[in-house]
Amino acid sequence: MLVEQRLKVATPIALMWVLSWLSVGYHAQPTSLSPGKAEKKFSPPEKIQVKVSRGERPGIVVFSEDGQHFAGRDQGSIVVWNASSGKEAARLDANQFSGYLAFVPRHQHVMSLFRSQLKRFDFTSKELVSTLNLEQFEDFIGFLSDGQHFVSYSQGKIQIRDAKKGEVLRDFPILDRFLLGSGMLILSQDRRLLANVHTSKRLIKIWDVESGKELSTLNGHSKLIQGVCFCPANKWVASTGWDKTVKIWNAKTGECIQDILLPESGLQVAFSPDGKWLAVGSVGNKSRVSILDTANWQQLALWETKVNCSRNLAFHPQGHLLATAGSEYIQVWELPVEKKLPIKLNPFQQQKQPDDEKKRASLPQTAGLSAEFSTSDHRQQREPKFLGFISDSLVIQVRRGEKPGEERISAFDLKGRKEAWSVVRKGSSLYSHAMSPDGRLLVAGDQDGVRGLDTSSGKGLLAENAPDRVSRIIFSAAGQEFVSLSPLSIQYWKFDDKKNTIEKGKLISNEDKKSFDGHLLSRAAMSPDLQRCATQNNMTGEFCVWDLSTRNKVCTLKGVKKLIYKVMYTPNGKWIIGVEHKTPIGIWDAENGDELRRIDAIGDLLTPMAVSRNSKWLAVGGGTIPRGEVTLWDLATGKKLLSLAIHRDTKFAKFKDHTVRAVAFNQTATTLAAATEGSLYVWELKESPPDKK
To answer: Do residues 252 and 297 share a domain?
Structure first.
């Protein structure tokens, strides 16, 4: 009836417009939506109002995955607010902020596009985490569910990129040549589908992100398309625009199943997390937001917002709040829901755990600083080279001595909070240190060979010569045997605790360079039984695991693209941990070489790391002058458990550099120690499982 009434009063020009409008191809019966006829079932009260600076770009607002924060733009900065109180939680300096803004799944990070740079901020520490230089005119679309990848557009192609390195993992063309120009790209809520909107051509194409296949084409708008969104189950796509309509499409077939007429131009649409409501932002003489019931597409609510504050809409993950944003305000409205929806974790976070994992004690949630020591002589800062636990109450530290070729070894009593003993050892340049699992023996490797130290007394053991310069010392899990690694050999050693001596064992030599495919052995990792080694070919970059008894290749680590600075086995022998150049720390399966996960920590040659004896946690040290930091990670999930900061306001603030140089767990994984140039810090891990195996 509404279309018939328009035809009766139409001028010839208007008639031509209507005929062209009817010929675009959709067949749904239009229904009218107007303020006068709307049945208002609720009027949501305003909960939060935030005044932001007037800008040329439309307002933007996004909620974090856990619903605790929302973010927007103010005076060229990214601002994060508390979603409950509306108080400002963080303000991040963001010059040339373009408006693309997203919370990074599974992290306390936000990411946004700044012309040709994609910047990532930690909004808890208010620090810039990373900057990715992208190609010119590239669009950032959004993150995939794992938080490790994002989708971008460049030169007619959709690209799946690594969120840390920015590398293109795969891409596929999505636009015909004639469609290149202006358009929008919108990800579905589960990040599986992509809507490619060409505003001027009034077309919407739906793509499968994983396969790159085009699923459907939505054709029916007569004027510019302004807003598009997917329903949570990807069954429908909603769109609105300047033709004063809201259209509901079947995402698979492209059929328009509902056509709703608006009294004014549509700006944006958003489905609630449970898919029961559709929010529509529109503007005419005033800015308005309406809520539609998706069961019958009837209007439940209609209210006015601040000027232009209907340009961007975002539902809270629990569905009880709706945020609207414009050029001057962000408003948060409280919706009358019977029950808040549960926070839905990403599929990658909902990993099923074995029953024995569910029954184990909780992971550490806090850490209390239990001891601080000054480790410098005469206020001279000495770089720590090694850190380990002799027992739960005795920590040993090795640091450079006052003279070249010297090192000072000190033991600190945690209970008495004093230095137990200290010795100075002389020799040629010392390259590596390792301590037996029971804390009884400390071994150092240098240009001449190996030398031991009885940690109970601080007395040295007889030094033994090695075939070549010793680059690394690694103990077996049993602790009675260790190996010294040189570029072309692996020398086995045995510790006789009764005689208190070190005896030389078998030698695996690669002097002819015919074994191990040219892999150098100096930076290798050894399995806990010392029967396998993992090492990299410096020329090809290939990283392999070798059976030392047969010298045959067991597997190749997948996904290794750069030089690995550090590599180690976990004590249970199941995983291999590696630090690639400017790349998140990787974890691989030691049997088949599959890459299992990446930990959100960037390491380098000097990054100190330690794995707990129960193979559950990884401690990573680092920081930047004058701030030091130790982070604790769950190896099974890659999740960060703790972040322990060392600041200048600590007891030993006279030392300017608090960068962490060494870290260590005690034997029961209840205590964590970290060493800086001048200080030693010890934390007691709260709620730590007492694994004494």
So the answer is: yes
